[in-house]
Amino acid sequence: MSALTAGTFPEAAVRERARVGAAAAFPAVADYGRALFGAPSAEPTGDELDAARLVPPVFVPERLEKLIDLAREPLHGDVELGTEVGGFTSPLPLYLSAFGSTQVASADLGQAASAQAGALGVPMVIGENVVPVNGYGRLDGGGGRSLLGRISAYARAVPDGVGGVVVQQSTEDADAEVWNLVYSDPSARPLLDSGRLGFELKVGQGAKPGLGGLTVVDAADADRLSGQFAVEHVFGAGSGRALRCASPGTFTEEILRQQIRLMRNNFPRARVWVKLPPGRDVAVAAAVAWEAGADAVTVDGAEGGSGWAPTSFLSGVGLPLAECLRRIAGPAGCLLASGRVWEGSRAAKCLAAGARAVGLGRAALIAVDEDPVAGLTRLVECLSLELRLLISALGKYRVSALTPDDLWSPTGWAVPARAAVGTVTG
Question: Which of 181, 309, 397, 420 is the most exposed place for a label (fewest CB within 10 A)?
Answer without folding.
Answer: 420
